[in-house]
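stuck on this one:
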Amino acid sequence: MEQKTKRLAELDIFRGFLVLGMIVFHSWLHLYEEKIPEAYFHFVPTGFVLFAGILIGKVLSGRKTSFQIYTRGLKLFIIFLLLNVPFWIVGKISLYRIAVSFIQGNPTFSSFEILLPIALTIISAPFFLKLRPPSLFFLIGLLGLGMLDLFQYFPYTVKFFIIGVMGIFFGRSDLLNYFLRAEKDKLRICISFFLSAILVLSLPSLPLSWSLQMILTLSLFLWVPYVLEKIPGMRSMLMNFGKYSLILYIFHVVLIQSLKHFPLFVTRSPLILFSEIIGVTLICVLVVSVLEAGRKKSPSVEKAYRIFFQ
């Protein structure tokens, strides 16, 4: 049981790392006046969706019924709609543009786009969980991403839905056990670190490839949790970030989008940007602390959390 708990902790630590990556990316995108090197951050949404699928395949499939999994995805889809309906009404967005944004993920016509492919992944998970063998279907999904790379055609929702489904297969396969060994192989960590470094340095100069982004994400997963958990205080913070990744995703986007409307927070200074990233991160730590305390002390808060997010 202790070994299993440690393995699940690695999943949460890495998901928390991805939340940190999103905070950095969105802060840089909206609060910094210089051009952002987006190619360095493509692994963040890739990992966010991939590990949503892995969580289904590894954890939820053994704890929830098919109906409960389907209901969870439907609730997330409703949350996506509720977050966007006011924007669609105020912006007088046509139904056609809304429908197109469901496939293309155009930020001009919708926000919180990553929630849609995650919701669709969860809704369809009961079907994909029945397919065997999962390792084979994971490789088929990787081939599908490779085809999109070949034609340089990347419909947002379709692309990330494929990644989410691949996460389901990966979570159900023996491949995940290789990544979740209790005792880490130091040589394997070094190899995965250098592979990550090579991909990070080379991807900006290559044609956009989501299959390579998948490989980068998985290579990061081999060493990032092991390294970050050695930093004092980092393990518990990242585990909480991973545990509440959905709430923190919505919260930090709303916070940063609000800050960008105040000229005081939009800067050309890397030092000020770094300070803002630290500030947003600390606010997220506070949000998690308040939520944790509220769930422990108030049955109504716990009930509301379970209704909306479980």
Remarks:
- The radius of gyration is 19 Å.
